[in-house]
Amino acid sequence: MKYNFLLPVVLSLTLLLSSCAGNGSPNKAGMGAAGGAAGGALIGQAIGHNTEATLIGAAIGTMLGYMVGNEMDKYDREQLNHVYERGVSGQSNAWRNPDNGNQFIVTPQPAYSNPVTHQPCRQAAIQSVIDGKSQTVYTTACRDNNGRWQLKN
Q1: Is 141 helix (H, G, I), strand (E, B) or coil?
Q2: Helices (H), strands (E): how many in the chain?
Q3: Rounded Cα gap, residues 63 and 71, in angstroms
């Protein structure tokens, strides 16, 4: 297997991020990273059916989970859910968090049915400016059984 080096990297990254304290909530970023790693690994395995895909999915999920857990509070997650639910495909939606000043611009893509789970899913680009630092992440969210959009990777 040519990607054996990824397992220690992913595990180290997950442990490092899960031990970080962020924005007054010591476990928020770590919980997001751990949840993202697990979700990314499952998606990677479902798509690639091999260890490499699982590890790559875990790495991507870790980073996305950390970002969401550390940087997005309840207000931001509600805004993001609204974009996934009602946002016009290809049209950017922006907001500024009134409590912390973080800024987000989300551009959703058309909804589609996940071929494995048959859930409605949507991809989006999330641009953020947090503490003056700009970052862009590409995500996929699928509707869960309760009707809420859940980030998958």
Answers
A1: strand
A2: 4, 6
A3: 12
Q: What is the C-alpha end-to-end distance of the chain, expressed in Å?
A: 24
What is the enclosing helix (H) or strand (E) of 69? Answer: helix 51-71
8 A C-beta contact, residue 18 and residue 30: yes
Where along the chain do its domains lie? 1-71, 89-153
C-alpha 32/C-alpha 50 separation (Å) is 24
Tens digits of residue pLDDT in 69-107? 556 788 888 899 999 999 999 999 999 999 889 999 999
Q: What is the pTM of this model?
A: 0.56
Answer for the pair 153, 39: CB distance below 8 angstroms, yes or no: yes
Contact 87, 70 (CB under 8 A): no
Query: What is the spatial distance between Cα 90 and Cα 100, in angstroms, rounded to a whole number?
Result: 27
- In whole angstroms, how far apart are CA 90 and each of 18, 93, 112, 124, 150? 34, 10, 14, 9, 20
| Number of other CB atoms surrounding residue 89 within 10 Å | 12
Q: Which residue stretches of the chain have pLDDT < 70?
A: 1-55, 57-58, 62-71, 153
- Is 114:142 a contact under the CB 8 Å cutoff? yes
